[in-house]
Amino acid sequence: MTLTVSTVANAFIKFKRARHDALDFASGIPITHPSLCGEERMCNRRVPLEHGDRYVCTGAVDVTKLLRGSRASLLDKAVLLGANVLVEESWVCHIRIPKNKQDGKFRVQIRYYASASRSSLPDPQKPVALEKVTNVPGLMTIVGREEIAH
Question: In this structure, is the dihedral angle defined by the CA atoms of residues 133, 134, 135 and 137, taken in order, positive or negative?
Fold first, then answer.
């Protein structure tokens, strides 16, 4: 490859575009809600599921609300399989922070993992490990959401 002014300039432009501030965090090991723990309350048959969403937000990022939306979509998939609860849940979140937070767009990717099962108790309708969430403060507006194929 010949080193010219244009190739060096293009390399700097690509490097500058690729460099973004980001937040990465996860729930950790799979967790089952305490209300669903106990063998007498749950079916032993479990089907592992995964759901991914890519959100575009402005103003801020409220990860708890985004996790709730992704979990609800995963529970919908579980219901189609005949299950009524999610167990052994975990999630991973990646937030790409724009350079200008006032008018920039936050791109958030969430992957939610769980096993579908049946129980005599209702599903808690709440994501696990919310204490591990890191939000970007402000007023969040979701301007886009798309499902990520896995």
Answer: positive
Q: Contact 63/134 with Cβ under 8 angstroms?
A: yes
Count the neighbouring beta carbons within 10 Å of the beta carbon of residue 48: 10
- Quickly count: other Cβ atoms within 10 Å of residue 37's Cβ: 11
Q: What is the pLDDT of residues 57-110, one digit of tens each?
A: 999 999 999 999 999 999 999 999 999 999 999 999 999 988 876 678 999 999
Long-range Cβ contacts of 123-126 (<8 Å, 24+ apart): 123/36, 123/75, 123/84, 123/85, 123/86, 124/33, 124/35, 124/36, 125/71, 125/72, 125/75, 126/33, 126/68, 126/71
Q: What is the pTM of this model?
A: 0.83
Strand arrangement of the beta sheet that strand 21-26 belongs to: 21-26, 85-97, 105-117, 47-58, 141-148
- 8 A C-beta contact, residue 106 and residue 23: no
d(Cα 143, Cα 109) in Å, to the nearest integer?
A: 14
Separation of alpha carbons 43 and 21, rounded Å: 43
